[in-house]
Amino acid sequence: MAFSALSKRSAASSGQAITFRWMGKNGRGERVRGEMHGVSEHDIRRQLSSQGIVVTRLIRKRSLPGMGHRIRGGDITLFARQMATMIRAGVPLLQSLEAVANGTNRPALRHFIETVKQDVSNGMSFSQALAAHPRHIDQLFVHLIEAGEQAGALDRMLDRVATNKERLDNLKGRVRKALYYPAAVVAVGIAVTALLLIKVVPQFESMFASFGAELPAPTRMTIALSDAAQRLWWQVLLATLALVFFTRRMLARSPALAFQASRLLLKLPVIGPVIERAAIARFSRTLATTFAAGVPLMSALETAGGVCGNLVFEQAIERVRQDLSTGQQLNFAMRTTGLFTPMALQMVAIGEESGALEAMLNRVADFYDAEVESRVDTLTTLMEPLIIVVLGSLVGGVVVSMYLPVFDLGSAI
Question: What angle do CA 400, 403, 409 make, to 5 degrees?
Fold first, then answer.
């Protein structure tokens, strides 16, 4: 109890909003309830009293660990969309930030918006306040907001940020589907097989022991696997978790290893083309968006390289920036990387010659967005019969091997 009171006082002193659940009666004597954000119980009671509500119960809302304490990409997209709507309606920036903060039930996002509001009220521009949070706000967001502030078109730039992030998140979701769907199915097949080996096969083994006859080779092999699984399952599980942990740690600490992993993904027979087309689409879309906002091409390329999602493309775009600084054309610098498709290079060349680079880049992004979606749908369709074969082989192999002795016994009778 003392710790709870201490935490409430510390939250109140820091000015951080807390979510409270309240119950009470309105002016007509009706029972009402709801949730409200405030820095203390006194603050909530004061706000409700000003609305003519007599509070009968007020408790601090508890949340599970990790729930609402992490800002997701979709939260930033929603924040940009709501800010665009408020500013377009003529609401001042500070009031818009306050309204959006009060309208969210995610503590981390609310704290982020309140921090931005505090920085803006202390004299920072909106773009500078956002740039102070590189973990959640990328360079594209900052560049577009800065351009919107200079051009007096902040609402339009916020809408453009939200639209661009929605498209990129949608594309990222398709790539994840292509990567995770086969892995998830194989994992389920392995888990079901392990369950059969550990729980079901031992029941058959005790029954076979009473036969006193030699078992078929497939049955003996399955029983041997079952014995190994019962003895070693926890070692295998720990080894798998350790391998995943150390692999992720090595990829995070070793840029060279992470680069080789990105190159390996591009060379995979079915997944590689999907990742390649997705990287080109994200690069083209981001470059078109930043270039159209008046961001210099060199800065736009730096931003576009960071959102490709692949280190091979990121390093290649850095080489493109270096070549542009020596006077080369964009399409020629992109051609020397050997990563971009002929269609993308041709469209960029046409855009440079005609002065319509933004339009051509958007067409490239639209084309490869559609191609990624088509490839992922095709991959999913082709994977379904393969999945049936894999699951049937794993599960059916165990089941058939267990029933072979029964079939032999029936034929002998």
Answer: 140
| Rounded-to-integer distance, Cα 11 and Cα 14, Å | 5
CATH number attached to the domain at 73-168? 1.20.81.30
Q: How far apart are CA 411 and CA 413, in angstroms?
A: 5
Q: Which fold has domain 169-412?
A: Receptor-associated Protein (1.20.81)
Residue spans per domain, the chain: 19-60, 73-168, 169-412
Distance in angstroms (rounded) separating the CA atoms of residues 20 and 63: 11
> What's the mean pLDDT when you consider all of the chain?
81
Whose tokens are 């051009």? That residue is 151
| pLDDT of 12 higher than 80 | no
CA dihedral for 384, 385, 386, 388, sign (positive or negative): positive
Whether the pLDDT of residue 63 is over 70: the answer is no
- How far is it, in rounded angstroms, from Cα 91 to Cα 99? 10
**36 by DSSP, 3-state: which?**
strand
User: For the segment 96-143, what is each residue's pLDDT rounded down to a tens digit?
Assistant: 998 888 888 778 888 888 889 988 888 888 988 988 888 888 877 888
DSSP β-bridge partners for residue 18? 38
Query: Which of 260, 314, 267, 245 shows the shortest CA–CA distance to 286?
Result: 314
Would you call 56 helix, strand, or coil by DSSP? strand
Q: Residue 181: what pLDDT?
A: 73
Q: Is the pLDDT of residue 177 over 90?
A: no
